[in-house]
Write a structure and sequence with these properties.
- By secondary structure, the chain is α+β, with helices and mostly antiparallel strands.
- The protein has one domain (about 30-164).
- Helix content is about 30%, strand content about 25%.
- It contains three helices and ten strands; from the N terminus they run αββββββββααββ.
- It has a four-stranded antiparallel β-sheet with strand order 4-2-1-9. It has a four-stranded antiparallel β-sheet with strand order 5-6-7-8, with helices on one face. The protein has a two-stranded parallel ribbon with strand order 3-10.
- The longest helix is centred in the first third of the chain and has 30 residues, at about 1-30.
- It is elongated, with a radius of gyration of 20 Å.
Length: about 160
Amino acid sequence: MRATLVAATALFFLLLLVPTTWLFLAFNNKYRQCITLKNGLNLGYEAVVDLSRSYFKPIAVPRFSDGTPLIHDELWAIFVTDTSVYGVSMAGEDGLDYRFAWRGDTGLIKQMESGALYDRLVAEAGHANWDIKTGSIGTDWLLNELIKRPEFNVHRCPTALITW
């Protein structure tokens, strides 16, 4: 009886371990990819696994080279130029959407905090998204599109394992 219980337990863990390991390796490989943008930021995923989202799929965010996200919120209008990143957050810390702009010499600027500087940064940013698509696009879509393009260097970035 004891041997059967041990064998059943071992079989259960083996059946659980193989798919879990495969899933972790697949997530780890895909969600640690990022690309370096000409403006100095990277575009990559915030974490390998996001416990707050369905299917644990993380969101793509603009990030610094050390892996720190510029913005932790999901973006649905991201415009990337050779000097800047600007767009619209889907929901910030207070639950409201907001517009932002980033440039290396000014840092992150939110429109509601400094409207004139935000307007100037967007006006000076130039043509965005390399004619990939007109209108606004999401960060996940942009990252997946840029990964396909040979002119962008796809590499592994420091990425948090889990976020929520």
